[in-house]
Design brief:
By secondary structure, this protein is α/β, with parallel strands linked by helices. Helix content is 51%, strand content 13%. It has an 8-stranded parallel β-barrel with strand order 1-2-3-4-5-6-7-8, surrounded by 6 helices. It binds flavin-adenine dinucleotide.
């Protein structure tokens, strides 16, 4: 983390809202579902799959949690109606995890069931370490229920790997290899480094050790027969993951690559041109300001990327591009 990145992180509250919006524009599809659906259609035309994430998390009222769930259910319907190659990513704190676990479970089960009915898939994003155990428990619980219901209905389920729900694991957590060992059979997992600033008691803080744990986790996931969404822009990890895939002779039904909207587009295009399945994480919604500033503060190295992007755009004469 450079001094520049840290300085941007500290000074964020001083940056005027329109400037944050300007800088964050390449990373967020827009305020409305229509913006996100249009961006998804355009990504699909470029041969890229997508996953839509409604911005907002840590809701503190039952009404907001129900509203967020309803918006997601509607999104799943709109994706199916338009035939888009796109699933949804959801944060459990948006569905009420911090209010009441049972409430959150019911919302998640409802969403996953609708996704299963519409042939789609729900990815549960992973939040900070205070949510890890509850997130994995709810994932296992709702997955088991969904599998039982699909088996009863004589269906194979839906989405990559056959299930309608998957989860995320973070390579920086000390616990991740143990979490992989406890996953259900044929799990569908997004593997990422982890974005939250965590204490050394729970997370690896050394950059190279996180990379090593990412690759060890990827090996362990493949060993367990998981479908893996390899979520990274790190060129070293992209190369090593590709080598692991070749070595194992894995087909496209075993993995995909995932990247964030607006980040390292040349790397994602290179992967797509090489015939890899690539999925783009597309955040949208009116909560963009809170999301952007919190993310930038949580991970000042991303603040550095955003600031650099902002100054580059100024130098190039601005515009949304
Ligand atoms: C699809 C997807 C879903 C994710 N879901 C979660 C989640 O559920 N929970 C969670 O904790 N984290 C999530 N993350 C974030 C992830 O944990 C990392 O924090 C993030 O991807 C940066 O790590 P990296 O592997 O790309 O490596 P880094 O070392 O951070 O980045 C590698 C290179 O990518 C480029 N780069 C990275 N970020 C940016 C940026 N913002 N702007 C411009 N260039 C950039 C730079 O060239 C950098 O050198 C997700 C990431 C992706 C791609």
């Amino acid at each position: 983390m450079t001094f520049f990145s840290r300085a941007v992180g500290w000074s964020l509250p001083l940056i005027p809202r329109p400037l944050v919006r300007f800088a964050a524009a390449p990373y967020v599809a827009g305020d409305e579902p229509a913006d996100a659906l249009a961006r998804t259609a355009s990504l699909n035309e470029q041969g890229l799959a997508a996953t839509l994430a409604l911005l907002g998390e840590e809701v503190d009222s039952r009404g907001l949690a129900a509203e967020g769930t309803a918006l997601y259910v509607d999104l799943v319907d709109q994706l199916a109606d338009r035939g888009l190659d796109c699933n949804v990513s959801v944060k459990l704190t948006l569905l009420g995890l911090k209010i009441e676990r049972e409430l959150c479970r019911n919302h998640l089960a409802l969403l996953v069931e609708r996704a299963a009915e519409r042939g789609n898939f729900v990815r549960i994003d992973m939040e900070d370490h205070t949510c890890t155990t509850a997130t994995l428990d709810l994932y296992r619980d709702v997955l088991a229920e969904s599998r039982a219901r699909r088996a009863g209905a004589g269906s194979n389920g839906s989405g990559a790997g056959g299930d309608a729900v998957g989860v995320v694991l973070q390579a920086y957590l000390h616990r991740t290899l143990a979490d992989i060992a406890a996953l259900p059979e044929r799990a569908n997992v997004r593997l990422c480094k982890g974005i939250y600033v965590e204490p050394p008691s729970v997370a690896i803080t050394d950059y190279h050790k996180v990379r090593r744990n990412f690759l060890a986790s990827l090996e362990a996931l493949f060993d367990r027969g998981a479908y893996v969404g390899i979520a990274t822009h790190d060129d070293y990890l992209l190369r090593e993951s590709a080598a692991m895939i070749e070595h194992r002779g894995l087909g496209k039904d075993g993995y995909e690559f995932q990247m964030l909207l607006g980040v390292t587009e040349e790397r994602r295009d290179r992967l797509a041109r090489a015939g890899r399945r690539v999925r783009i994480y597309v955040p949208y919604g009116r909560q963009w300001y809170a999301y952007s500033t919190r993310r930038l503060r949580e991970n000042p190295s991303i603040a550095g990327h955003v600031a650099r992007a902002f100054f580059l755009r100024l130098l190039r004469g601005g515009g949304r591009g």
